[in-house]
Amino acid sequence: FMNRRIFCKSAVLAYFLGPFLSSKLFANTKGSGIFLGELIINGKKTNSQSIELGDATIQSGEKQAVLKVNDDVFLIRPFSKIKIIANQLAEIVEGSIHGVFGKREEELLIKTPSGTLGIRGTAIYFELDTQKKSSSLCNCFGHTVVYGKNGKLLKSLKNTKENMHSAVTITDDNVITATKFKHEVVAKEFLKK
Description:
The protein is mainly β. The chain has helices at residues 4-17, 183-190; strands at 32-36, 39-41, 44-46, 56-60, 65-69, 72-76, 81-85, 88-94, 96-100, 108-112, 115-129, 134-147, 153-159, 166-171, 174-177. Strand 14 and strand 15 (174-177) form a beta hairpin.
């Protein structure tokens, strides 16, 4: 029997990423790989389904890509850049990603230009708007904490299957709460090519 966490993670992935993914992504395997598209990892293009990351700077080109890093999966939108440290997402530098994170004992801290995200195991969509100097976060499912640049707690977002998709805009040390998303809106807006 599949435990509940794996089932929920697979269901969220199937819903948001299903049209783009092969069944290999759902296999209970460790490690990292690219399951859709091509990425530039530390300056070299690759589309390998089995890669060693460790510490890496990862960029997408004109097309989106799907990257699996151990228990986490990311849909990396075009022209995005992230940093991985010790095989974990450590920073979102530019662009946007949709991430499904495996459950963790300790909060994973992800640096962004407008602050820091704290994640324990959830599904999120995060997008940077460099022109407006702000970022948008949709906590699709689970628990995400938003910290300002000075480390101050700005917002704690918790969503369940009955209450999905809390959206906020983050501008420096301020969080502006937006309305709840509906599945159809998220699917249409966030997965546009």
